[in-house]
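Each letter names a residue; structure tokens follow underneath. Both lines appear below:
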Amino acid sequence: MLWRMSGSRAIPGKVRSGLRPGTSAKRRAGALLLGALLTLSAPAHADEASAARIGVNRMNLAWLSRGDQERILTDIAASGATDVRLSLSRPVDKSIEALAIAHRLGLRILLEIQLGNKSYYPQSVGPRTGHGRIWDVYRLSDLDLARYRKELQQALQRIDALGVRLVAVEPGNEINYAGYNGDLAVYRKPGARTPRSIAELRERARFERGLDNYVKALEISRSELRNTVHSRDAAIISAGLSDMSAAEADRRGMERLDPGEFVALLRQRGIDSLVDAYGIHIYPGRKAAPAISARVRSLLDFCRTAATGKSCWVTEWGIANKARSCPVDDRSRGEAIRVMRATFGELIDAGRLTAAYYYDWDTEPSYSLWRCGKLSPAGAAAIGPGDGAGAQAR
């Protein structure tokens, strides 16, 4: 796992645009027509409740021009993707512009709310330091719930006024990891043993206050969504949790907790009455097929069926391909993606998994699906219908 910023893997240089400069007007018009048809054929909300969602991440569109937003989202819609995970981040106006475009193109939106937004915190507090090795982030224990409600209410009202419908909202991102939760410590020097449980955290009391705040933020999010017209039935998904191992945390010198333990701590605080599913992220690395399947099953061990608890949404998953040649050779990750999709399919059939969103569309060089100006073969397998068992990544 590489460094990521607010639900997106951090990379140097500019974010690449979706279409290359030579893209024809005819192709753009065709993509827009397809988007319109998708909108007309989109099923009613009530009919979608039990359907598994297979989507793709395109975070931080607020950082781009409206033209780039339009181009990238048009490519996503034209690829056959139906679901997309987008972010509500600063500048909020630009985030909302992207949501409106995605909605117009017929894309169903999972909205991640970036809790690192400084507008949610008192001006008197600052972020926890990353000691120059990672970004500085705010502490959940400092989250100003009144500010959060006010800012979220205003954003949702503006989104609603545009007629945009959200199918799900995910407040927070990887809050079981110091990269996104300032109540978890970043050590001045990496390499030391990091905590294996809540009992070993450096600032356990403060961390637990942050958990209390997070549960209250979920309550606010649910309440404000219910006051909208178009998104009142949107599902609430708890923050997608990092799958970082203890060994990797030691190497980086950053505290983290296992997803299963973290969810248990939230359940003790009543999260099950506030969320429709638990969020989690999975980056299995370059393992053999049986090892990938075992890793996925182990990470999702805490996911339940509707009869026994809450299912899971994998709001990020990804397989790397570091090749930069064009045309792209995607065979190196084709089998891994097939195995991931097949394992997801089994968990979906069992009722323990409800959604899976691939990370990333076009910004992360190793993980992106958009290669050489088009959707890669492995990309088609990652976000296509079915479990991916028959997809060929050539």
About this structure: The chain is about 35% helix and 15% strand. Residues 204-226 form the longest helix (23 residues).
